[in-house]
Design goal:
- The chain has a domain of 47 residues.
- It contains two helices and no strands.
- The two termini are 26 Å apart.
- Keywords: Membrane, Transmembrane, Transmembrane helix.
Length: 81
């Protein structure tokens, strides 16, 4: 029995890169959705303009979530076929 170490390393690197990508996309989606949160009156940032408009944040969250769904769906497709 022999192990093709080059293919194993390639699969491990690709898997790690996809994992980091999916986690980053989910994090960006959460940050995008946080634009919809109302700021408390009297807080530290009272009166400051929001860093992102709610519509833009929601659009970013939707695109990131769609990208994650496509990546996961493609991975499941590869496993099933």
């Amino acid at each position: 029995m022999t192990i093709d170490w080059g293919s194993l390393v390639l699969a491990a690197v690709f898997s790690a890169a996809v994992t980091v990508g999916v986690v980053s996309l989910v994090a960006f989606a959460v940050v995008g959705l946080s634009a919809r949160v109302h700021r408390p009156i009297g807080g530290r940032n009272d009166g400051a303009p929001p860093p992102l408009r709610p519509a833009v944040g929601t659009a970013i969250a939707a695109v990131c979530t769609l990208a994650v769904a496509l990546i996961v769906g493609y991975g499941l497709f590869l496993v099933v076929t």
